[in-house]
Description:
heterodimer, A: alpha/beta, Aspartate Aminotransferase, domain 1, Aspartate Aminotransferase, domain 2, seven-stranded mixed β-sheet, four-stranded antiparallel β-sheet, 11 helices, B: alpha+beta, Alpha-Beta Plaits, 4 strands
Amino acid sequence: MELINFDNAATTFPKPPSVIRAAQEAAQTLGGNAGRGGHALAMRSSEAVFSARETVAELFGAAPENVVFTSNCTHALNLAIHGIMAGGGHLIISSLEHNSAARPAAALAKDGRISLSVAQVFPDDDRTVESFRRLIRSDTKAVICTMASNVTGQILPIRRIAELCKSRGICLIADGAQACGVLDVKLEGINILCTAGHKGLYGLSGTGLLVSDGKFPIKPLIQGGTGTSSASLMQPTLLPEALESGTLNIPGIMSLKAGVDFLRSKGIPRILAHEEEVCRVFMEELKSVPKVQIYRSPKAGYVPIVSFNVENLPPEKVSAALSEKGFCLRAGLHCAPLAHSSNGTKSGTVRFSPSVFSRPQDAVRLAKTVKEL
Amino acid sequence: MTYVIAAMPSYTYAVKAKRLLTAGGYPCEIQRSGYSSEGCGWELRIGGDSRRALDLLKSRRIPFSLSGGDEEWS
C-alpha cells in the first residue's frame, strides 16, 4: 500500500533528492569536527558549516554569526527561553503556543523563577494585539509568540506584536516552526527566531535553528567545548559558539542548507500557492459534509494546515481509519493543549498538512475517504 | 612580505573576516593559533596593506585582537 503523508506539519516527507544527497555527501566527505581543529578535514567541515550559516542568514535577513544550529525547534526555544529569562522577570506567551514553548515557560514559573501570563489569541488581529498589550508590565522581559498555530495554521500578527515589543524594550521570541518555508519570514523586529530544520525547510530530522538579531544576550543553557578559549572554564559569550557546545550534526546541517537552497530555487510564494491549493481542494470536497467540522475562521489568515473533526468519532479513531487506507494524518492535541482550550476542541482534532510534494488528487481521495467514515 | 596575525574569537568570525578581506583584495589565511594562555583558538594571517585590512574588520564590527600587541611581523 502506498503511504501518503499529510502530516508534514510534524516533519516533511519525502525530502528533496538534493537534501538526501547533501547529507550523504557530508557523511562521506565532511569527517572532520567543525571548529575543532586546524587539519584539512576539520577545516573542510568548518568551511561547510559556515556556508550553511550564510545560507540560513540570507534567508532570514540575519548575520551568519547569529545563526545557531540546534537539534530541533524545541531545543532552540528552550535555549531562548532559559537564556533570556535567566535573571527572572515576567514572560508572556500566546494561547496558541506549542508545549515546546509553554512547558519550559511553565516550569520556570512553577519554580518561582519567573511570572507567566498567557495572551489570548483571537481570529481578529486587533483583539490579539490588544490582549498582548494589556498584559505588559514594567518587569515584562520577553514575549513568546508562534508565527502560525501548529493546530489550525492560524497566522498571528507577528509584525504588530514586534512593534509593540520594540516600543517597550521587550525581547520577542518567535516560534517559526509552521511559518518558515511557506511565509517570507525575516527577523525584522523579531529578536530571536526559533524554528525546525526538518519541517518547511526540508532538512533532515534532528535539525533546528535559533536565529538572533544580537540585541538580547542569551545565557547559555548548556556549557562545554566550543573549540575556542579552551583554557578558560568559563563559556565563551559570542554567538554562535556560546550556544553550540559539543559536536555539531554536520550531515544534518548540510541537509538543512540543501533544504533552504531547494526552497529558494522553487520560490517560497510558489510553494505556498501549491500547498494552499491542496488545502483548498481538500476543504472544497468536505465543505458540504455536515458531519465534518473544519476549524477555520473567515477573519483569520492561515498557513497550509487544516484541522478538522468528524462528528461522533474521536480524532484518534479517524486518524487510525485513514491510516488503514494509506493516509498519514496526525490526531490529538498536537502538543498544544492551550490552543485547544482556545479553540474549544479539548478532545483534539485531526490535522491535514501538505508539503510541496503533495498532490491535489490525493487530497480529493482523502476527502472521499473521510466522507465514507 | 609583511603580514599581521589577528587573533579571532572563533572559527565563525575567522571565516567571516577571511571572506570579507578576500573580497576586498586582502590576501589572508585562517590558521590554528599556537599555544597561548587562552588555549585553542584561531588566527587570521593577513598580507598586503594590513592596516587598511584591519580597519575594514573594525568598520564591520568583527572582533579581533593583534597577537603580541599592535605590531607587524615580516
